[in-house]
Amino acid sequence: MFSSKSEYDRGVNTFSPEGRIFQIEYAIEAIKLGSTSLGIQTPEGVVLAAEKRVPSTLVVPSSMNKIMEVDGHIAAVMSGIVADARILVEHARVESQNHRFTYNEPMCVESCTLATCDLSIQFGESGGKRKLMSRPFGVSLLIAGVDEKGPQLWQTDPSGTYTRYDAQAIGGGAEAAQNVFTERYHRNMTLEEGETLAVDILKQVMEDQLSPENIEVAVVRVDDGKLHMYNPTEIKAIIARLAE
Amino acid sequence: MFSSKSEYDRGVNTFSPEGRIFQIEYAIEAIKLGSTSLGIQTPEGVVLAAEKRVPSTLVVPSSMNKIMEVDGHIAAVMSGIVADARILVEHARVESQNHRFTYNEPMCVESCTLATCDLSIQFGESGGKRKLMSRPFGVSLLIAGVDEKGPQLWQTDPSGTYTRYDAQAIGGGAEAAQNVFTERYHRNMTLEEGETLAVDILKQVMEDQLSPENIEVAVVRVDDGKLHMYNPTEIKAIIARLAE
Amino acid sequence: MFSSKSEYDRGVNTFSPEGRIFQIEYAIEAIKLGSTSLGIQTPEGVVLAAEKRVPSTLVVPSSMNKIMEVDGHIAAVMSGIVADARILVEHARVESQNHRFTYNEPMCVESCTLATCDLSIQFGESGGKRKLMSRPFGVSLLIAGVDEKGPQLWQTDPSGTYTRYDAQAIGGGAEAAQNVFTERYHRNMTLEEGETLAVDILKQVMEDQLSPENIEVAVVRVDDGKLHMYNPTEIKAIIARLAE
Amino acid sequence: MFSSKSEYDRGVNTFSPEGRIFQIEYAIEAIKLGSTSLGIQTPEGVVLAAEKRVPSTLVVPSSMNKIMEVDGHIAAVMSGIVADARILVEHARVESQNHRFTYNEPMCVESCTLATCDLSIQFGESGGKRKLMSRPFGVSLLIAGVDEKGPQLWQTDPSGTYTRYDAQAIGGGAEAAQNVFTERYHRNMTLEEGETLAVDILKQVMEDQLSPENIEVAVVRVDDGKLHMYNPTEIKAIIARLAE
Amino acid sequence: MFSSKSEYDRGVNTFSPEGRIFQIEYAIEAIKLGSTSLGIQTPEGVVLAAEKRVPSTLVVPSSMNKIMEVDGHIAAVMSGIVADARILVEHARVESQNHRFTYNEPMCVESCTLATCDLSIQFGESGGKRKLMSRPFGVSLLIAGVDEKGPQLWQTDPSGTYTRYDAQAIGGGAEAAQNVFTERYHRNMTLEEGETLAVDILKQVMEDQLSPENIEVAVVRVDDGKLHMYNPTEIKAIIARLAE
Amino acid sequence: MFSSKSEYDRGVNTFSPEGRIFQIEYAIEAIKLGSTSLGIQTPEGVVLAAEKRVPSTLVVPSSMNKIMEVDGHIAAVMSGIVADARILVEHARVESQNHRFTYNEPMCVESCTLATCDLSIQFGESGGKRKLMSRPFGVSLLIAGVDEKGPQLWQTDPSGTYTRYDAQAIGGGAEAAQNVFTERYHRNMTLEEGETLAVDILKQVMEDQLSPENIEVAVVRVDDGKLHMYNPTEIKAIIARLAE
Amino acid sequence: MFSSKSEYDRGVNTFSPEGRIFQIEYAIEAIKLGSTSLGIQTPEGVVLAAEKRVPSTLVVPSSMNKIMEVDGHIAAVMSGIVADARILVEHARVESQNHRFTYNEPMCVESCTLATCDLSIQFGESGGKRKLMSRPFGVSLLIAGVDEKGPQLWQTDPSGTYTRYDAQAIGGGAEAAQNVFTERYHRNMTLEEGETLAVDILKQVMEDQLSPENIEVAVVRVDDGKLHMYNPTEIKAIIARLAE
C-alpha cells in the first residue's frame, strides 16, 4: 500500500505531495509492533501497566523493564524500540534533575513531557554541534506523575506531539484496550479499581497467561506523591482480584 | 497529479522547471490536513477561534490547545503539524521577551510575525552552526495582537511569507470559512459579533456538535491590550448565543 | 520541454552539457509566475510601480508591499518569491547602513546593487561557516535610487548579474510592458510623465481594475534625493490622470 | 526475500513502512554468520564458552580469542564481526577503568553492559564531533560478571538493547543451543555442571571434533569474584568429563 | 551526443571512463554561449576588445562592461557567465592589492593570472573552512597587462589552466576570430593596427552594426604602463578608421 | 555474480540483507589481484618473502620494495594496493616510535599489529576531525617480529581483524602457497629451512624465473632480535640452495 | 566496455566487486590523453624531455611549460591535466623548501617524490579541516634529481604509488617510447646520448615536426648537482644532432 510513495520517504524528514512525513508514520508502525502498555488516571493516583514479551524462560524478566522511573514522582512506560525509549527517558531524567538542582523543587509533569518531546522533534539531516538521531524515535511513552496540579497521564509520539489522557493504551493491543476504556473507565475510579482494570485489559490483549513475570504495574500515588513499582507479590494480588 | 514532477521535489529546497518549490507546496498540503482555525479583527479587538479534533473522550482537551499565548498582548492559533507550531511559537516567545528586555516595551505585532517567518524561511541543506529544519515547517499561524497601531491579525505560511488580514481562516475548513467571511464580515463589527461569527463558522465546518471541549476561543482586547483565553463557561455562552 | 535535461538539474549548481545551469533558469521561471513590477528613470527621478495580487478583499493590502525602502535614497521593487526578496532587501539595508556608519555618507546605488548580487551568487552545497541558500533566490529586483551620479535604475537576477536600465519591467507582464516602453519611453520624460506611463502599463497588464489597493507607486526624486512612497490619494490622482 | 524492501534500507538508519530498521536486522544476520558462543549462570558463577572457527592448522588459535576480559570481574564472549567486538569491548574496558578511578570500586555488571549499548545505539549519519560508526555494530556480546548483586549474564544486540539471561547462546548455533538449554538447564546447577553443559552444547553445534584449540571456556566465580580463563589442560578435562 | 555519459557527470568533479571531467567541458560550453572577446599583444601594448550583447535599447550599456580593471596596469575581458567573472576578477584585484601592500611593487601579470587560476581549480565537494564553488567557473578571461617583462596577454579557462597568447579570442565567435588572427596578425603591429584589427574582427563576428554602445575597447600601453579604457569618442574613431 | 547485490554495496559501510559488508569483501578482492607475499615462523626467527611484479626491465627493483621495516624488531610485507600499505605501515611506525618514547622499550608485536588494525577499521562516512579513508584499505599485511614472547607472525585484513599464524601467504598465489605450507611446514624448522621453503613457494607461484630483482626476503632473528633485509647476494644464495 | 561497472564507480573512492577503484583507473586514462613526456637516467645526470601540443601559432610556447623546477636539484615533467600537475608540483616545492629550512640541506629525491604521493592519495569524501580533492589527480609526474645517492628518476601515478626507473615515458606516446627504450637504452649512456635518445623518441611519437617551440628538454647534472632548463638554441643543437 505504500509502494507508490516510496519516492518521497527516502528523504528522512521531507513532505510527500499529500503533506505527510512518511518516516514519522513508519515510526508509528514500529510502535504498533511493540507490546502493549497502558495508563489510567484516578483521583488517588495514576496506574501504569505493561505487557512484557519474554522471549524465553531463560530470560531474567526484571532485566526487561518497560516501566522506568524518571524522578521520584514521575514514571514512564514505553511501547516500541527499547533502546530509543532509554534515550528519551535518560533525557527526561537529566532534565528533571537539572530542574531540581536549579529551582529546588520537583519538575511538573507537563514540563517533563515537553522536554522529552523537544528531543523527539529534532531528527533529520541538518545537525549542528549536538548529535541528532537521523530518524524519528520509534517509541511512544506514557508519562505518569503527580504534581501540584494533581495526578496526570501524558502520551508522547514520534512527531514530538504530547497529549494528556484520562486513560490511554499504546503498542500492539492499543486499539483493543481503548475500546475497553471507553466502556469501563470512569473518572472517579479508586486507585484499586484502576489497577484491576489495567491488569484486566492486559489479560485480554495478551496471548500468554498473566503472571508476575510477564506484566509490570506501577502507581504514582497522590497521598505521598511518590512512584511505587509493584513487586511480584503485589502483582499476584491484583491478578488474584481479577479471578474473583 | 504530482507524479511527473517527482524528479524535482527530492531536493528539499530546489526549483522545478516551472519555478515552483514543491516541498513548500507539500507543506501547505499538511496544513490542509489539519483542523480549522480562524481569526477576526474588529475595532474592539481580535478574535481567534479553533476547532479541536479530540481523538477520544479519554483525552483531556485542555492538553491539546491550538491557541497559544506569545506574549501578554499577542496570541497565535495554528493549523497543521502541532510540534512544528510549538517550535515557531516558542521562537516568537523568545523574540518577544528579548524585545521587552532590550527596549523595555512590548514588541509590535508585525515585528513578532516577521521574527517567526525569518525562522520559517531557513530550512534546507546548507546549515551552519545553528540547527536548521531539513524541511519547511508544516504549519500556518494566525497571529493576533494589539499594539500602538491598533488590533491586528497576521497570517504566516511555510514559505516565510506573512500577510495581514481583516479576517482569515486556515486548515481543513479554510475555504468554506472564507466564503462565509466574504458574506458576513464587515469592518465595524463589535467584538461580540466577531465572537459569534467565529463560532458560527466553526459550527458550519465541523462535523461534531460544538462544545467547550472541541473548540477554543480567545480575544486580544483593545481596551486593556491583553489576551483573554475563554474558559468553558464563556465558550458555552457564545454557543448559546448562536442558538438564539 | 525540459524532460530530457532532468538528469543535469538535480545537482543544484551544476552545468548541463550545453553549459546551462538549470536551477538558475528555473528560478527565472519563478519570477515570471510573480506579479508585474516596473521602473522608469527620468531626469527628475526614478519611478517604481508594482501590481499587487490581493488574494481576497479581507487582506489588508498595505501588508503586501512590493516596494521596499532600502535606505532614504534607495528603494527596491520585486517580482517572484516574497520571502526571498525580503532576505535580499534586508541584506541591502544592512550593507547600506554599514556604509553610512563606516564612511559617513550614503552608499551609491550601484554598490548597493552589487552587494545584493554578491549574496545571490552564493548558493549551492559547499557552505562554510555562513548559512547559504541551497537554491538560487527566486526573485528579481529593480533597485532605484539617486546618488551623486544622478538617478539610476538597476535590475538584479537570480544568477547575480545586475544591469542598469532606463526603464525595465519584471514579473508576469514583463514582456508586454517592455513593448510599451519601446514605443512610449523617452529619456527626457518628466517625472509626472513617468508616473503616468508606469501606471498606464500596469493598467494594460493587470486583469483587475486599477485601485490604490492593488498597485503601489514610489519615486526617488532628484531634487531632494529622497524616496517617496505614494499614499492612496496620490495613487488615485495618477489613475485619474490616465482617465483624462 | 528482502528484494522488495531495498528502497528503504539504503538510508542507514531509517524506518521501512512496516516500522522496521533494516540495517539493524541485517546486522543481526551478520551475527548468525558467526561461530557459536554461550553463557550459563549458576549460583557459583557464570560460565562462558565459545567455538573457534580456526581456518587452518597454521593459525595460532590463541590469537583468535572469542572470550575477552573486560575487567577483573567481568568478561565478554562475542559472535559476529571480530573487529566490531573489539571496539565495544575496548569501550567497556575504558568505562570500567573510569568507574574504578572515579568511585574506587568495581563497576557493576549491568552498568558495564549499559555503557556498551550506549555506544551501539549511536550509529548513522548525524555525527557531531565524535566519530560514529556509519552502520550498526555487527556483533552480539554475552557479558558475564559477578558483583554485589551476585553472578549475572547479559546479552547485547546491535540495536543497543540488553537483556539478562540465566543461559543464552548467540551465533550460528544459537537456536540449537537454546533448545538444549530449555531441556537441560536448571537454576541450581553447580559451576562444574555448567561447564559440562556448555561444552556439551558446543560439541553438538560444531562440525569439528572438540579440542582445546577450537573452543574457549572461562568462568567468573562467585567465591573470589574473579575471571578465570581456562587453559588447554582445564579445557581438556572438561572434554574428558563429557566422554564419561 | 552526451547522453551515454550522463552517469559520470553528475559527480561534480569526477572522471569519466575516458579520463574526462565533464563538468569542466560543460563549463567550456557555457563560455561558447557568451559574446565574443579578444586580445592582441603588440610591442607598444595590449589591446582588449569585446562585443556587448545589449538586450534592449533601454539598457544602459555602460552597466554591462565586459572589460574590467584588475589593477592600474592589468585588465581582464570575459566571455561566459558574468557573475562568475566578477568573482574571479574581484579575487585578482584583492591578490593584486595584497601584492602591492606586501612588496610595494605592482604584481607581475603572470602571477596575477596564476592567482586567478588557483581559485578556479578549487571547486567540488570537499570544502574545508573556506567557501568553494560547487561547480567550475563558467567563464574564460583574457588578462592583459604590462610589467617589467613587457606587454602580455594570458588566457584562463575553467580547468584552471592558463596560457600566454600573442592574440586570442574567446566566446561565441572565437573560432572565426582565430582564423582572422592567423591571416592578419603579426608580432610587429603598431598598437593602432592592433586596435583596428580587434574592432574589425568584432565587426565580422557580430550580427549588429558596430557602435560605441555595443563594443568595448581598452589598451594597456607600454609607454606609461597603464590601462586606458576607451570612451565612446575613441571607439567611434576606430570604427571610422575601419570604414576608410 | 555480484550483480543482484549492487543495491547494498553503494553505501560504503553498510550491511547487505545477508549481514555482509560488500566493500570489505571487494577490498579483499583487491588483495587477490596483488602479487604473492608470505611469512614463516621458526624457533630461530621469522622469514618474510615477497614476489615483485617488475613491469619493465627499466624499473629499478629496489624502488618497489614489498617488505618494509616498521621498527628495528618488526617488519611487514604487503599484498594489495601499494599506497594503502604505505599509510598503514607509516601509522605502525609512528605508533612504534611513540611506544619507545613513552615507555622506553620496544613495542610488542601484537600491540603493533593491533594499532594497525585500529586504523583499518575506521573508514566510512562519519568522519570527525581526523581524516578517514572513505573506503577500506585494500591491503593485507603480514607483520613479523620478535619480542619477549618470542618470534611471531601476524596477518591483518581490510576488516581490521588480525590473526597469528605459524605460516601464512597472501595475494594472488595465497591459496597455492597455503597448500604447500600444509604439506611441508613444521614448527621446528630451522631459519634456513624456512628461507628455503619461502623462496621455493615463490618459485612455484611466480611465472617469471626467480632472481634477486623480482623477489625480496627478510628475517627477524631471535638471537639478535633484529630485522635483516637480505641483499641480492644473500637472495642468490637461497635460490642456489633450491637448485641443489 | 565500462558500462556494466557504472554502478560502482560513482562513489569516488570505493571498490568494485573485482577489487578495482575505477576513479583511479579513469584518472590514468586522463594521463593517456595528454602529450608525451619522458626521462632518462645516465651516470652523468638525468634528462627530462616533453612534447608540447601548441594549439596555435599565436600561443607563446614558453607559457605552456611541461618541465617545472621543484628545487635547484630536482625537476618534474608531467603528462595529464595541467592544473593538477601545478598543485602537486607546488606542494613538492613547499615540502622541499620546508626541508631546507628545517634541516639546512637539500631534500633527497625519493622523499620529495613521497611527499608528492602523500598528497595524491588523499582524495575522496571524508575531508577533515584540510581541503581535499574530490577526485584523484589526473596526472603522472616524472621527477628527476641528483642527491647524495646519485642521479635518480621517479614516476608518480594517481594512486599515490611511486617507482624508480632507469628510463620511463608517460602520456599519449608512452607505449611507443617504452619500446624504443627497451631497444636502445643502456645504463652507461653519456648524458649527451641520453639527450639525443630522448629527443629522437619525441620525434617518433609526435605528429608535428620537432622545433624548439614544441619540445622542452632539461637535465639535472651530476657534476654540479643542478637543474638546467635548455634554451631554444640548446634544443636546436640536439635536433641538429639527430639529423646527422
Automatic annotation (TrEMBL), chains A, B, C, D, E, F, G:
Keyword Cytoplasm among UniProt keywords: yes
One GO term of the biological process aspect: proteasome-mediated ubiquitin-dependent protein catabolic process
Summary of subunit composition and partner proteins: The 20S proteasome core is composed of 28 subunits that are arranged in four stacked rings, resulting in a barrel-shaped structure. The two end rings are each formed by seven alpha subunits, and the two central rings are each formed by seven beta subunits.
Location(s), subcellular: Cytoplasm; Nucleus
Organism per entry: Leptomonas pyrrhocoris
GO cellular component term of the entry, any: nucleus
Domain Proteasome alpha-type subunits residue range list: 8-30
InterPro entries to which the protein is assigned, alphabetical: Ntn_hydrolases_N, Proteasome_alpha, Proteasome_alpha-type, Proteasome_alpha_type_5, Proteasome_asu_N, Proteasome_sua/b
Name the UniProt record assigns to this protein: Proteasome subunit alpha type
Entry function: The proteasome is a multicatalytic proteinase complex which is characterized by its ability to cleave peptides with Arg, Phe, Tyr, Leu, and Glu adjacent to the leaving group at neutral or slightly basic pH.
The family this protein is said to belong to: Belongs to the peptidase T1A family.
Pfam families: Proteasome, Proteasome_A_N
Keyword tags: Cytoplasm, Nucleus, Proteasome
Recorded superkingdom: Eukaryota
Source species taxonomy: Eukaryota, Discoba, Euglenozoa, Kinetoplastea, Metakinetoplastina
